[in-house]
Amino acid sequence: MIAIIDYGMGNLHSIHNALKKVGGDPVIISDSTKLSGADAVVIPGVGSFGDCMTNLAPFRDKLFEVINSGIPMLGICIGMHVLFDHGEESDCAGFGLIAGDVIRLPQGVKIPQMGWNELWIRQDSDLLSGINNGDFFYFVHSYYCIPEDDSTITASTDYGVDLAAVVEKDNIHAVQFHPEKSSSKGLIILNNFVEMVRC
Amino acid sequence: MLAKRIIPCLDCDLGVRQGRVVKGVKFKQIRYAGIPWELAEEYDKQGADELIFLDITASHERRETMAKVIEKTSENVFMPLTVGGGIGSLKDARNAFNAGADKVSVNTAALKNPDLINDIAKYFGTQACVIAIDAKRRYGREASREVVDTPQGECWFECSFYGGREFTGIDAIQWAVEAEERGAGDIMLTSMDRDGTKDGFDIELTSAISDSVNIPVIASGGCGTLEHILEVFKKTNASAALAASIFHFREYTVSDVKEYLKKNGVHVRI
């Protein structure tokens, strides 16, 4: 079972439908105890950094427990941001699972970045299997992650700055774009994630 | 680099079971085009970047049909979906999001109650709030209007509401700026003079609005050929182009449009 954490901030239809489409067995959970039986966890991306941390607080202990157990985890957009140490948006601490900060997009570009942008692959990864350099993904965000360890960035995208689009560390996978809104290429990534669950 | 977006618009008549996509000309005559989610899947295969579903019947009993259309579409189509037409309150917006929409497009209700923009942005994020502006040229110079030079003479642009049936006296350029300040994430800009004519986008209108705001502007109204779409991207700062009839009636596919744009130096997702 792939647990999609529902922390009460918007609809989770797309990610649920998309995981189902690629053969996964997603379940939307709003109660942290249900995380126990999960084979994988998805933190979807909606809202602001501070609100997300507040609403995710009840999941914290259980979330750390299952992530430490080594099951695959996927953070999407804000769900990626909260994995880091600190968010500038609400001047708020994140989960600190990946060392680094989340800061605002640079001046000189339209904020939020909204639309399809190219992915530039830096390293091979199971999550990106079947994705080609320059494939487009759908982004909606005003802030971006700067991991302390550059080598955790497996793909980047160019929007006023060369920013981390995919960050991976052990069983933790995080994407800045929305795979569930990125048509067939997004489904490839979600399929790769579902394959990890099966392994 | 961010790609220019191509957005097919599905004008939905929800007065029949399952709904159907229709196309009007100059906001009036109606031609039938197909079942909404079937067209949506077809456009996904062709490489559409986003889809907009507009409820042109917009009455309360038909909301459920739109919810069904969106639910059904979002089972198989994985791209941003916008719902518009008759979104009158935060509750309507919530219902659309619950059905699987990513954005709502608001026109009349926002002109009557601009705070609705702030509310949608606050609860669902600026990216979820599209302001639709239906603008008509008013020739001549008037005090306190944003006057634009066009080949046909000086004019300002007036916002209309209720699906083009009534006029507001509100200046479209000023309204776009206010909408951005209040938290709109996109402006969907339709030229009433061009809508359904296939004479091409209103370049002066699109230029004036996209130069006045920092949020993306979706150009709409008048698209009849591939050259029209190229023209709007070459001559204005529009981030996206919307078209309906050229796609519905299979004159061109979305991939035809994108191949043509790419060949002519426009950055698009292929």
What does this entry look like structurally?
The complex is a heterodimer of chains A (199) and B (270). Chain A is an alpha/beta fold and 199 residues long. Chain A has five helices and 14 strands. Chain A is 23% helix and 33% strand. In chain A, helix 1 (13-21) links the parallel strand 1 and strand 2. Chain B has an eight-stranded parallel beta barrel with strand order 1-4-5-6-7-11-12-13, surrounded by eight helices. Chain B has a single domain (5-263), classed as TIM Barrel (Alpha-Beta Barrel), CATH 3.20.20.70. Chain B has helices at 36-46, 63-76, 90-99, 108-112, 115-124, 172-182, 203-212, 226-235, 245-248, 254-263, and strands at residues 5-13, 20-25, 29-34, 51-55, 81-84, 103-106, 129-139, 148-150, 153-161, 166-171, 186-191, 217-220, 240-243. Classes of the chains: A alpha/beta (199), B alpha/beta (270). At the A-B interface, helix 1, strand 8, strand 10 and helix 5 of A face helix 2 and helix 3 of B.
Biggest sheet overview of chain A? 8 strands, mixed
Output the CATH homologous superfamily of chain B. Aldolase class I
Helical content of chain B, roughly? Answer: 25-40%
Gyration radius from CA atoms of chain B, angstroms: 17 Å
Sheet with most strands: strand arrangement of chain B: 1-4-5-6-7-11-12-13
Helicity range of chain A: 10-25%
Count of helices of chain A? Answer: 5
Strands of chain A, total number: 14
Mean pLDDT of chain B: 91
Strand order of the largest sheet of chain A: 2-1-3-4-14-13-12-9
User: Main sheet of chain B?
Assistant: 8 strands, parallel, barrel
Q: Structural class of the secondary elements of chain A?
A: alpha/beta
Shape verdict of chain A: globular
Which fold does the CATH topology of chain B refer to? TIM Barrel
Give Rg of chain A in angstroms: 15 Å
Q: Could you name the ranges of chain B where pLDDT drops below 50 across 5 or more consecutive residues?
A: none
